[in-house]
Design a protein that fits this description.
- With 610 residues, this protein is an alpha+beta fold.
- It folds into two domains: 6-312, Nucleoside phosphorylase domain (Rossmann fold, 3-Layer(aba) Sandwich); 331-607, no CATH class.
- Helices cover 21% and strands 29% of the residues.
- It has twelve helices and 28 strands.
- Strands 13, 14, 15, 16, 17, 19, 20, 22, 23, 24, 25, 26, 27 and 28 form a 14-stranded mixed beta sheet that branches.
- It comes from Orbilia oligospora (Nematode-trapping fungus).
């Protein structure tokens, strides 16, 4: 592998602002430049380098695009492009919450630290409001990987013994990059001013016109070296700039600092959040301390990485990031042509690739609950695989079917391919609104997991089923009374806790309805809970009539049987008929259907069939 090979990079570092990325890049011991090649659907820009023994990939959110959803999209794409990332860091600035218990000053560092069931990050603007106005959180976020928590504890103990080296790292950075001297240095104690929480900013960019009598008097510090605080970070989609609200939320949730991106990352990109304090999250906030705060956060991150040996091999981290075997990423996307390109899946569980009989999956017209559709079921109309099905057998996991699990699944569905019209119509149905005529823009599909359930020996199982009289009667009835094909479900793919995010939905003007529709959030996001089937693999059942000269030995086979066509008006001695039922060799896909293929980790493409 070359130095710029994406497989060499094991640490993902995400920033929200250019000043944060500048500080991050300046902290690198080595700069490796930009990736030499990148997937067409990956629109982010990456900087590669090394800190200590770790190769690091750094990325920043697009200019002017902030918030939890934007951070989640970047995190998912980074892990899709850099498959060997073991853990992540979210590094940048935040608004501090000063108190008697936590004497937080500008330039100090706050690090997310799990407490009890909390991950160390809470989304303070997501929950249920009760009568007294208190916000009750109704969800939890993933905790940082174990390797980071272990290193954080070790570094905290080391700092208690000898102090931290943040100022030293910043001095080296400024010496190496002298043009950063003016803005990335400490901004002076005289410019670190805290006002009473209930005192609003008056006018102007700075606080020259603010009443000095409303300043909070604090004891001077003996050193300019930043202090480090460990605890809960509050994350939301709006800037916190009100002292009273800040203190109320902080007291309820024991929050040390507020920011805007981390909550979107934690479930898609498990990471440690590190924030340099650039203001006090009140109306007096300004950008004077942003650069220095970004530098202190980056310096702490550098110290942390230098604590972690490069040769670690923690199973929990591998489960969370290298395919997340505890909750894996198969970054796949429908490109501008008629193909769905996919990089190799990293983690596969309970799977025997030689046993997979199929590679073609047809996308369902809706998301079915997993319990609504069964493997080895016979269906008369595959448009409705959950209706009128014959289910005669319960399969055993491992013995009869395999399961492959792709965790933190991501699909990017492009809209600029004419051949994707059928797929977009199906996505329109997913958004479940009569106001939606068509999905116009790109759609991103995210899920905690995507699971592939595949029968190992579908033909053998079908032959066993054909030996049951109830199955023979069912097949005979359809053969005698219908010209439609019958299908056998040999596999399906599911999504667990999925999100569908569309950039544009074309509204059906006839409905005269708003674009707001049930199940969708801003940016046209539809969420599902639980495990839903979204793609199915079918085998067509071929039924053949054999009247004369049928060898008697055939009747010993379970998929040959005698039947009598009484309703055909034949004499009794001519009614005897032999029916043969078997599965087609190839998986069935309708001419106008759309489907995807899925295979083993060596596959390089997923075909889109329309």
């Amino acid at each position: 592998m070359t130095l710029l090979d994406s497989r060499n990079y094991t640490v993902g570092w995400i920033c929200a602002l250019p000043v944060e990325m500048a500080a991050a890049t300046a902290m690198l011991d080595e700069e490796h430049g930009k990736p030499t090649q990148q997937d067409s659907h990956d629109k982010y820009t990456y900087t590669l380098g090394k800190i200590g023994q770790h190769n690091v990939v750094i990325a920043c959110l697009p200019d002017g695009v902030v918030g939890t959803t934007s951070a989640a999209a970047l995190g998912v794409q980074m892990r899709s492009s850099f498959r060997c990332i073991r853990f992540g860091l979210m590094i940048g600035v935040g608004g501090g919450v000063p108190s008697r218990l936590h004497d937080i000053r500008l330039g100090d560092v706050v690090v997310s630290k799990p407490r009890g069931t909390s991950s160390g990050v809470i989304q303070y603007d997501y929950g249920k409001a009760v009568e007294n106005g208190q916000l009750i959180m109704d969800g939890s976020l993933d905790k940082p990987p174990k390797t980071l928590l272990t290193a954080m504890s070790s570094l905290e103990a080391d700092h208690l013994r000898r102090g931290n080296g943040i100022s030293g790292h910043i001095s080296k950075m400024l010496y190496k990059h002298p043009h950063m001297q003016q803005h990335f240095k400490h901004q002076g104690l005289e410019n670190d001013i805290l006002y009473a929480a209930d005192y609003k900013h008056t006018t102007g960019f700075h606080c020259a016109q603010c009443d000095p009598k409303r300043q909070v008097i604090r004891a001077p510090r003996n050193s300019l070296n930043p202090a480090i605080f460990y605890g809960t970070i509050g994350s939301g989609n709006q800037v916190m700039k009100d002292g009273i609200t800040r203190d109320k939320l902080a007291s309820e949730k024991d929050i040390l600092c507020f920011e805007m991106e981390a909550a979107g990352l934690m479930d898609h990109f498990p990471c440690l959040v590190i924030r340099g304090i650039c203001d006090y999250a009140d109306s007096h906030k300004n950008k004077r301390w942003q650069e220095y705060a970004a530098a202190t956060a980056a310096a702490y991150a550098k110290e942390l990485l230098c604590t972690i040996p490069a040769s670690y091999d923690d199973d929990e981290d591998l489960s969370m990031m290298d395919g997340l075997r505890a909750r894996s990423n198969t970054g796949s996307s429908i490109g501008s042509g008629s193909s769905l390109s996919r990089r190799p899946t990293i983690a596969l569980e309970n799977i025997n690739m030689d046993a997979l009989p199929s590679s073609i999956f047809e996308l369902a017209s809706r998301l079915y609950a997993k319990e609504d559709i069964s493997l080895a079921s016979l269906i008369p109309d595959r448009r409705y695989p959950n209706q009128d099905a014959l289910v005669e057998i319960q399969l055993e996991e491992r013995k009869d079917y395999s399961i492959s699990i792709d965790r933190n699944f991501s699909d990017f569905v492009k809209s600029n391919a004419k051949s994707n019209s059928g797929f977009k119509r199906a996505l329109s149905k997913i958004f479940l609104s009569p106001a939606v005529k068509e999905v116009g823009g790109d759609v991103q599909i995210l899920a905690e997991e995507s699971r592939v359930y595949m029968m190992r020996q579908p033909r053998e199982i079908f032959k066993k089923l054909s030996g049951r009289q109830s199955v023979r009667d069912w097949l005979t009835d359809y053969y005698m009374n219908s010209d439609e094909d019958i299908y056998f479900i040999v596999g399906y793919r599911t999504l667990v806790n999925a999100q569908f995010m569309a950039t544009d939905l074309k509204v059906n003007q006839k409905t005269q309805q708003s674009r707001s529709h049930p199940g969708a959030r801003e940016n046209y996001r539809y969420e599902t809970t639980g495990e839903r089937i979204y793609a199915i693999c079918f085998r067509r059942v071929s039924i053949t009539s054999l009247r004369n000269g049928t060898p008697g030995s055939m009747l010993d086979s379970t998929n040959y049987w005698k039947t009598f066509a009484e309703d055909r008006g034949m004499e009794m001695d001519t009614e005897e008929e032999i029916l043969s039922a078997d599965l087609d060799e190839e998986d069935d896909l309708e001419e106008e259907a759309f489907g995807i293929t899925t295979g083993g980790p060596d596959d390089s493409e997923l075909e889109l069939v329309v």
